[in-house]
Amino acid sequence: MRLSLKVWRQSNKEAAGGFEDYKLDNVSPDMSFLEMFDVLNEQLIEEGKEPVAFDHDCREGICGMCSMYINGRPHGPLRGVTTCQLHMRSFKDGDTIVVEPWRAQAFPVIKDLVVDRDAFDRVISAGGFISVNTGNAQDANSLPVPKEAADDAFAAAACIGCGACVAACKNASAMLFVSAKISQLALLPQGQAERSIRAEKMVAQMDAEGFGACTNTGACSAECPKEISLENIARMNREYIGAKFSSSAV
Amino acid sequence: MSWFSQTLTSSIGKKLLMALTGLFLISFLVIHATINAMIFYNDGGETFSHWGHFMGTNPIIRTLEIGLVAGFIIHIADGLILWKNNREARPVKYAVNNASANSTWYSRSMGLLGTLLLIFLVIHTSHFWIPNRSNQFATGEELNLYQMMLDIFQNPVVVLIYVLGCVSLFWHLLHGFKSAFQSLGLNHVKYNGVISFIGTAFSIIVPILFALMPISIYLGWVK
Predict the structure, then answer these.
(1) CB of A20 closer than 8 Å to CB of A6
(2) All structural domains of chain A
(3) What count of other Cβ atoms lies within 10 Å of the Cβ of residue B28?
(4) Residue of B18, B80, B81, B102 to mutate, interface with A, max A Cβ within 10 Å
(5) Binned average pLDDT, 10 residues per bin, chain B of 223 residues
(6) Residue of B nearest to A78 (CA)
(7) CB A212 to CB B95 under 8 A?
(8) Which residues does chain B have within 8 Å of residue A171's beta carbon, measured at their own beta carbons?
(9) Short-list B178, B204, B173, CA closest to B191
């Protein structure tokens, strides 16, 4: 396959970036999108140019490191797929592909296609955990969990924190991510002790990071590689409003 | 900041306010459309004027009217604040953005549709509500709203503005009705279907009913 690429290049956080055009002549349709970028980078290194910086780690769709806004969509044109699991057979010979970093106030560009997603870590630090005493764990069977709750918690826990929801949302809202993290713990017995304060603190941190508010367009869920449901956002709204109006934390 | 103002100024709190005021304004639309539809009795405005007089003079309704004005102001102000915050959350736009692949245009255009509705609201209230209440305040007498309608809707430009206002209302409600329930956390597999059905039906029926009023008067169906 022959491809034309328009890739966002930016040397650091402060620098003004811009698009660079690249041509690739020998792309296999079986390559993943990131392997295609590896080929581009080898070509750039041979030409004595700076390779394109991009995030990646597991390359098997479970770590949440890869990003890339491809032809106007996070993780490219397929549903329920991360960039590393997107293959070049999803494109046509002669295509021009535009690749940009996630765009959000809370996700500043570090270099080229790499953005700083520490804001997500700070939201988790604010309350996305359970406190467990040391000592022997009790028998798992002594904690009954309804099947439906276990399924919903598991579906929410599938979130890999890649930030595609923020990237897709017209408001750069992080509510799908935060709601998945609040939901997975609110649905299980282990999450009950800190349930109210968790919702209050995580939402407060989400707002402090400068993410936008949800307008229920559904773009986040449609683009989520793990297909996290909008039901989680409704649950977060219930958890937060309920906690604010009834918890003893003033 | 008290817990209460902290709640209402948070991102979820602002959505909560939008949803509550939005549903309140929807309940107002039910009353407004019902009473105005009395013109279709085509009885020279007798039934319409009877209920218009009730709405304009009943002390309970007049008290609720203050809540209605507050509802409009909160919905508009909160909407503008959210629009500004949400724009600031993405200072650098995408060069290529294929948003239609993941969401409907009207769900992304609530601010624009709301602004069109606000312009319509200014035109509409300066036709009827403001002159009528000013006259009541000054002389204690109500204006003949039915006759005013017959006169104002003789102008095709005015009729067109009203119809366009109804079109904006249709798209705004089509997203807003369902969206309000989601913002309130009312998303449940047993009720989502019925909320969606009622929301869509409401968004179609109410604007059509409203649009038929100026059209019927202009075409002389209602005299």
Answers:
(1) yes
(2) 3-111 (3.10.20.30), 117-246 (1.10.1060.10)
(3) 16
(4) B102
(5) 92 97 98 96 95 95 96 98 97 97 97 98 97 95 95 97 98 98 96 97 98 97 91
(6) B101
(7) no
(8) 85-86, 89-90
(9) B178
